């Protein structure tokens, strides 16, 4: 069971109690049309989960939420504002949250934040409509669940299930910027690209001032404060602006370039630094880690999960820089460039005519050679390349209406299917985990700024306005200001025998897999897949672990896997 959970039904308390006990939760609220329960140690702490009910109805906010003015209870604020402004009240709610609202005479709903940073799962079944934040708990209410072949194949080939899919046919999740009602899913229009007038919108100044306000909003949290710190750009701005972060943590060998760089940044701002050696805990896909992947994304992204005990012993609030590269630095925009001796060298311009499928094949965890080997060794009856290309094309088309140009459409689709969100899922269940990149003002900057200016250069100019010493210690693989110069130096180092190459930021998975005997420990009886790449083996282990933890599908079979006939059940 997770530490924090929201669970509800469209129906009364008797319907709710068919599925869950009230004793599992801190509070259970019933409105005219739904019943919703919440469990959260931070309930009613300002800026976090909140509940409120009066004679008109009830409201629950689950996650991190900030509202204008002096109101400390975001649920009470939303219930009051909805009476005046209707759905437009959601435009002002700021943070990483789910909002549940049920008012007499109005359509009850569950709404995501703008970018679906918190998942909401719901049942697609003739019975009562059940929703919640824990996929396994919502799935347990399905009388006769069946496996979703497409969702599983997308996960095995790319490391994520796209769109609304899960691994179960009757279990879906709300799409980006949407709400669930008793009648179905409605798309909202908060996350739509609307470029600003460049003469009236200074992109650097606006980003700097919005970063400052967003960090100030997130600076008052309980207990000792920590930061998951890399040697890169994104997390250091948090360390620079939040004064009382005492502990910084990096996963990696103490002598690795990434760890040494992070340690220098921590020392610069007077914080202690701890490096967690990447031992078996780094890759071990046990049930306590896999539950945070929610059956849709790789647990691999939860780099810190194996070290939770050490982290929770020291801090209560944990900061991170997740998705800053996506919203501020153009992670999903397609650069123009040229292939030089097998190495892609980007130009200082965007691709004028990118192929969306090719972009996402590169950005997501797809490898043609490894997927072909996976299909051959498991007997999966499909052409992986054709399957993945068609799946990506369909998902890109589903999000296309939110953007006026193809580069923004690429980013929108990438955000709607962000692979690394399990990283935050785990942190948010263990700590107060402020999510800087989801700040409403910063998302508005993202939507108003053209793709050519959502770059590392723009981001760093804004950061320097807040702290002109932010780059005292540069990332080890980015010694120069210009992206092209960094790429050229990296290429020269790789091709010159006497020069040391830049090290990748994460430990080598193949070495760890072999050193700690994960073939036998995770996939002992499935020798047919032992030779495939570690990342794909970890996906199989994730799938096996997640489904094994769910009694309702324990007897099901995936017939298109061979030798042994029941690799997952």
TrEMBL record:
InterPro entries per UniProt:
Asn_synthase, Rossmann-like_a/b/a_fold
Q: Name one GO molecular function term.
A: asparagine synthase (glutamine-hydrolyzing) activity
Superkingdom to which the source organism belongs: Archaea
SUPFAM superfamilies per UniProt: Adenine nucleotide alpha hydrolases-like
**Pfam families membership:** Asn_synthase
List, in alphabetical order, the GO biological process terms annotated in this UniProt record.
asparagine biosynthetic process
Which part of the chain is the Asparagine synthetase domain? 207-286
Protein's name in the database: Asparagine synthetase domain-containing protein
* Organism listed in the record: Natrialba taiwanensis DSM 12281
Q: What is the lineage of its organism?
A: Archaea, Methanobacteriati, Methanobacteriota, Stenosarchaea group, Halobacteria
């Amino acid at each position: 069971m997770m530490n924090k959970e929201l669970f509800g039904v469209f129906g009364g308390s008797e319907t709710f109690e068919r599925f869950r006990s009230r004793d599992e939760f801190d509070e259970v609220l019933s409105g005219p049309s739904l019943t919703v329960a919440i469990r959260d140690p931070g309930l009613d702490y300002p800026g976090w989960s909140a509940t409120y009910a009066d004679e008109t109805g009830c409201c629950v906010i689950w996650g991190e939420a900030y509202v204008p003015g002096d109101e400390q209870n975001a649920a009470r604020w939303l219930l009051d504002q909805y009476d005046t402004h209707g759905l437009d009240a959601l435009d002002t709610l700021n943070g990483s949250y789910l909002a549940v609202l049920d008012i007499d005479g109005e359509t009850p709903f569950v709404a995501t934040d703008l970018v679906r940073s918190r998942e909401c799962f719901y049942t697609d079944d003739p019975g009562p409509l059940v929703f919640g934040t824990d996929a396994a708990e919502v799935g347990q209410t399905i009388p006769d669940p069946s496996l979703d072949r497409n969702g599983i194949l997308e996960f095995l080939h790319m490391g994520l299930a796209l769109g609304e899919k899960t691994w179960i046919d009757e279990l879906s999740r709300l799409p980006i910027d949407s709400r669930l009602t008793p009648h179905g899913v409605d798309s909202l229009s908060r996350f739509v690209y609307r470029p600003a007038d460049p003469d009236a919108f200074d992109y650097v100044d606006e980003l700097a001032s919005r970063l400052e306000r967003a960090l100030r909003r997130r600076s008052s949290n309980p207990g000792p404060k920590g930061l998951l710190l890399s040697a890169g750009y994104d997390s250091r701005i948090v360390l620079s602006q939040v004064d009382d972060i005492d502990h910084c943590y990096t996963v990696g060998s103490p002598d690795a370039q990434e760890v040494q760089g992070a340690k220098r940044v921590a020392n610069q701002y007077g914080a202690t630094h701890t490096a967690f050696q990447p031992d078996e805990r780094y890759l071990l896909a046990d049930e306590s880690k896999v539950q945070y992947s929610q059956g849709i994304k790789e647990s691999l992204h939860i780099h810190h999960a194996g070290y939770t005990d050490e982290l929770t012993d020291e801090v209560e609030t944990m900061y991170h820089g997740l998705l800053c590269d996506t919203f501020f630095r153009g992670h999903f925009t397609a650069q123009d460039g040229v292939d030089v001796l097998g190495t892609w060298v980007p130009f200082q311009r965007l691709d004028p005519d990118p192929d969306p499928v090719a972009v996402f094949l590169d950005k997501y965890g797809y490898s043609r050679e490894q997927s072909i080997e996976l299909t051959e060794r498991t007997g999966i009856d499909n052409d992986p390349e054709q399957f993945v290309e068609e799946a990506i094309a369909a998902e890109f088309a589903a999000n296309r209406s939110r953007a006026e140009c193809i580069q923004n459409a690429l980013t929108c689709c990438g955000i709607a299917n962000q692979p690394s969100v399990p990283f935050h899922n785990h942190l948010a269940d263990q700590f107060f985990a402020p999510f800087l990149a989801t700040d409403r003002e910063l998302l508005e900057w993202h939507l108003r700024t053209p793709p050519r200016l959502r770059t590392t250069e723009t981001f760093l100019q804004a950061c320097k306005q807040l702290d002109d010493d932010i780059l005292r210690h540069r990332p080890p693989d980015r010694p120069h200001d210009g992206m092209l110069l960094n790429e050229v130096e990296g290429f020269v180092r790789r091709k010159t025998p006497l020069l040391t190459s830049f090290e990748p930021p994460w430990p080598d998975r193949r070495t760890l897999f072999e050193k700690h005997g994960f073939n036998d420990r995770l996939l002992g009886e499935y020798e047919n897949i032992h030779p495939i790449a570690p990342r794909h083996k970890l996906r199989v282990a994730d799938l096996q672990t997640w489904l094994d933890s769910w009694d309702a599908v324990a007897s099901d079979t995936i017939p298109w896997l061979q030798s042994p006939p029941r690799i997952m059940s």
